[in-house]
Specification:
Strand content: under 5%
Radius of gyration: 24 Å
Number of strands: 0
Shape: globular
Length: 291
RNA sequence: UUACGGGUGUCGAA
Protein backbone atom coordinates (compact mmCIF):
# COMPACT_ATOMS: atom_id res chain seq x y z
CA UNK A 1 0.00 0.00 0.00
CA UNK A 2 2.73 2.38 0.92
CA UNK A 3 4.62 1.76 -2.28
CA UNK A 4 1.51 2.45 -4.29
CA UNK A 5 1.08 5.70 -2.51
CA UNK A 6 4.66 6.62 -3.16
CA UNK A 7 4.29 5.79 -6.80
CA UNK A 8 1.24 7.97 -7.05
CA UNK A 9 2.84 11.01 -5.56
CA UNK A 10 5.90 10.50 -7.71
CA UNK A 11 3.74 10.70 -10.80
CA UNK A 12 1.90 13.68 -9.44
CA UNK A 13 5.12 15.58 -8.82
CA UNK A 14 6.08 15.26 -12.43
CA UNK A 15 2.78 16.42 -13.75
CA UNK A 16 1.59 12.97 -14.69
CA UNK A 17 -1.88 13.32 -13.29
CA UNK A 18 -3.50 10.70 -15.43
CA UNK A 19 -0.87 8.14 -14.53
CA UNK A 20 -1.39 8.95 -10.89
CA UNK A 21 -5.12 8.46 -11.06
CA UNK A 22 -4.55 5.33 -13.08
CA UNK A 23 -2.45 3.95 -10.26
CA UNK A 24 -5.13 4.95 -7.83
CA UNK A 25 -7.83 3.11 -9.70
CA UNK A 26 -5.77 -0.05 -9.83
CA UNK A 27 -5.01 -0.17 -6.17
CA UNK A 28 -6.62 -3.09 -4.44
CA UNK A 29 -6.92 -1.18 -1.21
CA UNK A 30 -6.48 2.40 -0.35
CA UNK A 31 -6.34 4.55 2.74
CA UNK A 32 -6.54 8.18 3.67
CA UNK A 33 -3.06 8.84 2.38
CA UNK A 34 -4.01 7.45 -1.01
CA UNK A 35 -7.00 9.73 -1.26
CA UNK A 36 -4.93 12.68 -0.17
CA UNK A 37 -2.28 11.87 -2.72
CA UNK A 38 -4.86 11.72 -5.46
CA UNK A 39 -6.27 15.02 -4.37
CA UNK A 40 -2.79 16.45 -4.26
CA UNK A 41 -2.12 15.21 -7.78
CA UNK A 42 -5.01 17.32 -9.01
CA UNK A 43 -4.14 20.25 -6.82
CA UNK A 44 -0.50 20.39 -7.86
CA UNK A 45 -1.35 20.36 -11.50
CA UNK A 46 -4.03 22.97 -11.63
CA UNK A 47 -6.95 20.58 -12.02
CA UNK A 48 -9.36 22.40 -9.81
CA UNK A 49 -12.56 20.78 -11.10
CA UNK A 50 -11.22 17.29 -10.53
CA UNK A 51 -9.90 18.26 -7.15
CA UNK A 52 -13.27 19.65 -6.15
CA UNK A 53 -15.01 16.56 -7.34
CA UNK A 54 -12.68 14.25 -5.51
CA UNK A 55 -12.91 16.29 -2.37
CA UNK A 56 -16.64 16.79 -2.28
CA UNK A 57 -18.02 13.72 -3.93
CA UNK A 58 -15.58 10.90 -3.87
CA UNK A 59 -13.58 10.92 -0.73
CA UNK A 60 -14.99 8.79 2.05
CA UNK A 61 -13.22 10.70 4.78
CA UNK A 62 -11.16 13.78 5.32
CA UNK A 63 -8.36 14.62 7.63
CA UNK A 64 -6.73 17.94 8.16
CA UNK A 65 -4.26 17.21 5.39
CA UNK A 66 -7.08 16.73 2.90
CA UNK A 67 -8.47 20.11 3.81
CA UNK A 68 -5.11 21.72 3.44
CA UNK A 69 -4.56 20.19 0.04
CA UNK A 70 -7.93 21.47 -1.09
CA UNK A 71 -7.02 24.89 0.20
CA UNK A 72 -3.85 24.67 -1.81
CA UNK A 73 -5.89 23.76 -4.90
CA UNK A 74 -7.83 27.00 -4.61
CA UNK A 75 -4.76 28.97 -3.85
CA UNK A 76 -2.83 27.58 -6.79
CA UNK A 77 -5.58 28.54 -9.17
CA UNK A 78 -5.85 32.03 -7.80
CA UNK A 79 -9.22 31.67 -6.12
CA UNK A 80 -8.47 33.78 -3.13
CA UNK A 81 -12.04 34.28 -2.00
CA UNK A 82 -12.95 30.65 -2.29
CA UNK A 83 -9.82 29.72 -0.46
CA UNK A 84 -10.91 31.88 2.41
CA UNK A 85 -14.38 30.34 2.44
CA UNK A 86 -12.90 26.89 2.59
CA UNK A 87 -10.50 27.93 5.28
CA UNK A 88 -13.35 29.16 7.45
CA UNK A 89 -15.03 25.80 7.11
CA UNK A 90 -11.99 23.86 8.13
CA UNK A 91 -12.62 21.94 11.30
CA UNK A 92 -8.99 21.99 12.26
CA UNK A 93 -6.72 24.77 11.23
CA UNK A 94 -3.09 24.01 11.34
CA UNK A 95 -0.11 26.25 11.16
CA UNK A 96 0.38 24.99 7.64
CA UNK A 97 -3.07 25.97 6.46
CA UNK A 98 -2.76 29.32 8.14
CA UNK A 99 0.54 29.95 6.46
CA UNK A 100 -0.88 28.83 3.20
CA UNK A 101 -3.71 31.32 3.31
CA UNK A 102 -1.36 34.04 4.39
CA UNK A 103 0.93 33.36 1.51
CA UNK A 104 -2.02 33.48 -0.84
CA UNK A 105 -2.92 36.91 0.46
CA UNK A 106 0.64 38.02 0.34
CA UNK A 107 1.16 36.90 -3.21
CA UNK A 108 -2.07 38.43 -4.40
CA UNK A 109 -1.17 41.71 -2.77
CA UNK A 110 -4.14 41.50 -0.39
CA UNK A 111 -2.24 43.11 2.40
CA UNK A 112 -5.41 44.40 4.02
CA UNK A 113 -6.85 40.93 4.36
CA UNK A 114 -3.53 39.53 5.37
CA UNK A 115 -3.34 41.97 8.23
CA UNK A 116 -6.88 41.38 9.34
CA UNK A 117 -6.39 37.69 9.21
CA UNK A 118 -3.22 38.02 11.18
CA UNK A 119 -4.98 39.99 13.89
CA UNK A 120 -7.95 37.66 14.04
CA UNK A 121 -6.18 34.39 14.37
CA UNK A 122 -5.14 34.15 17.93
CA UNK A 123 -2.59 31.51 17.23
CA UNK A 124 1.01 32.33 17.33
CA UNK A 125 2.47 32.96 14.00
CA UNK A 126 5.71 31.69 12.84
CA UNK A 127 8.37 34.10 11.89
CA UNK A 128 7.90 33.05 8.31
CA UNK A 129 4.20 33.91 8.35
CA UNK A 130 4.88 37.38 9.61
CA UNK A 131 7.59 37.93 7.08
CA UNK A 132 5.23 36.92 4.33
CA UNK A 133 2.87 39.67 5.34
CA UNK A 134 5.76 42.03 5.63
CA UNK A 135 6.74 41.40 2.05
CA UNK A 136 3.13 41.80 0.98
CA UNK A 137 3.28 45.32 2.31
CA UNK A 138 6.53 45.87 0.55
CA UNK A 139 5.03 44.71 -2.72
CA UNK A 140 2.25 47.22 -2.30
CA UNK A 141 4.63 49.96 -1.28
CA UNK A 142 2.94 50.14 2.10
CA UNK A 143 6.11 51.21 3.76
CA UNK A 144 4.47 52.51 6.89
CA UNK A 145 2.49 49.37 7.50
CA UNK A 146 5.55 47.31 6.82
CA UNK A 147 7.48 49.35 9.31
CA UNK A 148 4.75 49.03 11.93
CA UNK A 149 4.57 45.31 11.57
CA UNK A 150 8.30 45.00 11.65
CA UNK A 151 8.54 46.90 14.88
CA UNK A 152 5.91 44.75 16.47
CA UNK A 153 7.48 41.48 15.52
CA UNK A 154 8.58 39.65 18.63
CA UNK A 155 11.65 38.32 16.95
CA UNK A 156 13.30 39.12 13.70
CA UNK A 157 15.82 37.17 11.77
CA UNK A 158 17.95 38.15 8.84
CA UNK A 159 15.18 37.38 6.39
CA UNK A 160 12.79 39.75 8.14
CA UNK A 161 15.44 42.43 8.37
CA UNK A 162 16.24 42.03 4.71
CA UNK A 163 12.61 42.27 3.80
CA UNK A 164 12.17 45.61 5.51
CA UNK A 165 15.49 46.75 4.14
CA UNK A 166 14.39 45.89 0.66
CA UNK A 167 11.09 47.68 1.16
CA UNK A 168 12.95 50.86 1.92
CA UNK A 169 15.50 50.38 -0.80
CA UNK A 170 12.94 49.91 -3.52
CA UNK A 171 10.93 52.90 -2.49
CA UNK A 172 13.87 55.20 -2.74
CA UNK A 173 14.47 55.60 0.97
CA UNK A 174 18.19 55.34 0.61
CA UNK A 175 19.14 56.91 3.89
CA UNK A 176 16.76 54.88 5.94
CA UNK A 177 17.86 51.81 4.10
CA UNK A 178 21.44 52.57 4.90
CA UNK A 179 20.57 53.04 8.55
CA UNK A 180 18.71 49.75 8.64
CA UNK A 181 21.58 48.03 6.96
CA UNK A 182 23.99 49.34 9.54
CA UNK A 183 21.67 48.26 12.32
CA UNK A 184 21.26 44.72 11.12
CA UNK A 185 22.60 42.14 13.51
CA UNK A 186 23.70 39.86 10.71
CA UNK A 187 24.42 40.52 7.12
CA UNK A 188 24.26 37.81 4.58
CA UNK A 189 24.63 37.73 0.84
CA UNK A 190 21.04 38.70 0.14
CA UNK A 191 21.22 41.73 2.39
CA UNK A 192 24.36 42.89 0.67
CA UNK A 193 22.75 42.28 -2.67
CA UNK A 194 19.82 44.49 -1.77
CA UNK A 195 22.25 47.28 -1.05
CA UNK A 196 24.16 46.65 -4.24
CA UNK A 197 20.95 46.81 -6.16
CA UNK A 198 19.86 50.00 -4.50
CA UNK A 199 23.03 51.75 -5.50
CA UNK A 200 22.80 50.29 -8.95
CA UNK A 201 19.24 51.55 -9.37
CA UNK A 202 20.35 54.97 -8.32
CA UNK A 203 23.15 55.10 -10.82
CA UNK A 204 25.86 55.06 -8.26
CA UNK A 205 28.56 52.81 -9.68
CA UNK A 206 31.06 54.09 -7.16
CA UNK A 207 28.79 52.99 -4.37
CA UNK A 208 28.31 49.64 -6.01
CA UNK A 209 32.01 49.00 -6.33
CA UNK A 210 32.65 50.25 -2.87
CA UNK A 211 30.01 47.99 -1.42
CA UNK A 212 31.22 44.99 -3.28
CA UNK A 213 34.68 45.53 -1.90
CA UNK A 214 33.34 45.78 1.61
CA UNK A 215 31.30 42.70 1.06
CA UNK A 216 34.39 40.75 0.15
CA UNK A 217 36.17 42.09 3.18
CA UNK A 218 33.36 40.70 5.28
CA UNK A 219 33.96 37.36 3.72
CA UNK A 220 30.76 37.22 1.72
CA UNK A 221 31.19 35.76 -1.71
CA UNK A 222 29.01 37.10 -4.49
CA UNK A 223 26.75 34.92 -6.53
CA UNK A 224 25.21 35.45 -9.94
CA UNK A 225 22.54 37.73 -8.58
CA UNK A 226 25.09 39.95 -6.90
CA UNK A 227 27.02 40.14 -10.13
CA UNK A 228 23.92 41.09 -12.03
CA UNK A 229 23.49 44.02 -9.67
CA UNK A 230 27.10 45.02 -9.99
CA UNK A 231 26.95 44.86 -13.76
CA UNK A 232 23.71 46.79 -13.71
CA UNK A 233 25.39 49.46 -11.65
CA UNK A 234 28.24 49.69 -14.12
CA UNK A 235 25.72 49.87 -16.88
CA UNK A 236 23.95 52.84 -15.30
CA UNK A 237 27.21 54.57 -14.68
CA UNK A 238 28.41 53.79 -18.17
CA UNK A 239 31.51 52.25 -16.70
CA UNK A 240 32.38 49.70 -19.33
CA UNK A 241 35.81 48.93 -17.97
CA UNK A 242 34.55 48.13 -14.52
CA UNK A 243 31.79 46.05 -15.98
CA UNK A 244 34.21 44.07 -18.07
CA UNK A 245 36.49 43.44 -15.18
CA UNK A 246 33.62 42.33 -12.93
CA UNK A 247 32.41 40.03 -15.60
CA UNK A 248 35.78 38.42 -15.98
CA UNK A 249 36.37 38.29 -12.30
CA UNK A 250 33.13 36.40 -11.93
CA UNK A 251 34.56 33.50 -13.86
CA UNK A 252 38.19 33.77 -12.90
CA UNK A 253 38.08 34.71 -9.23
CA UNK A 254 34.79 33.23 -8.21
CA UNK A 255 34.44 30.34 -10.58
CA UNK A 256 30.90 31.26 -11.40
CA UNK A 257 29.54 30.53 -14.78
CA UNK A 258 27.79 33.57 -16.06
CA UNK A 259 24.08 33.14 -15.61
CA UNK A 260 21.83 34.05 -18.43
CA UNK A 261 20.98 37.27 -16.63
CA UNK A 262 24.62 38.14 -16.15
CA UNK A 263 25.13 37.78 -19.85
CA UNK A 264 22.02 39.78 -20.53
CA UNK A 265 23.23 42.52 -18.29
CA UNK A 266 26.70 42.56 -19.75
CA UNK A 267 25.37 42.65 -23.27
CA UNK A 268 23.09 45.48 -22.32
CA UNK A 269 25.99 47.36 -20.82
CA UNK A 270 28.15 46.94 -23.91
CA UNK A 271 25.31 47.78 -26.21
CA UNK A 272 24.38 50.96 -24.43
CA UNK A 273 27.93 52.12 -24.33
CA UNK A 274 28.17 51.72 -28.07
CA UNK A 275 30.43 48.68 -28.10
CA UNK A 276 28.21 46.90 -30.51
CA UNK A 277 30.72 44.47 -31.95
CA UNK A 278 31.66 43.30 -28.49
CA UNK A 279 28.03 42.93 -27.55
CA UNK A 280 27.30 40.88 -30.63
CA UNK A 281 30.38 38.84 -30.01
CA UNK A 282 29.19 38.03 -26.52
CA UNK A 283 25.78 37.07 -27.80
CA UNK A 284 27.39 34.65 -30.17
CA UNK A 285 29.69 33.08 -27.66
CA UNK A 286 27.41 32.87 -24.67
CA UNK A 287 26.28 29.45 -23.59
CA UNK A 288 22.62 30.32 -23.95
CA UNK A 289 20.41 30.46 -26.96
CA UNK A 290 19.86 34.05 -28.01
CA UNK A 291 16.29 35.14 -27.91
C1' U B 1 4.24 7.20 1.91
C1' U B 2 0.32 12.64 1.34
C1' A B 3 -0.29 19.31 2.61
C1' C B 4 2.14 25.51 3.12
C1' G B 5 6.68 27.69 3.51
C1' G B 6 9.28 34.07 4.26
C1' G B 7 14.09 38.35 1.94
C1' U B 8 17.72 40.27 -3.46
C1' G B 9 18.63 40.51 -9.99
C1' U B 10 19.55 44.00 -16.21
C1' C B 11 16.74 44.25 -20.77
C1' G B 12 12.38 42.38 -22.92
C1' A B 13 7.25 40.56 -22.52
C1' A B 14 0.16 45.71 -22.56
Amino acid sequence: LISWNILMSAFAKHGLVDEASEVFSQMPVCDQVSWNSLLSAFAQNGRLPEAKQAFHEKMPAWDSISWTIMLYAYAASGNVEEAKVLFDKMPLKSLISTNLLLSVYAQAGYDEQARKFLDESAAEHSLASLTMVLSAYALNSQLRDAQDLFERMPEKDTVAWTSILSAHATSGQMHRAKRLFDAMPELDLVAWTVMLEMHAQNSDPEGVLDLSRQMLIHGILPDNTAFTCMLFGCSHGGDVAAGRSSFHSMAIDFHLEGGRRDYGCMIDLLGRAGHLEDAIDLVETMPYPAR
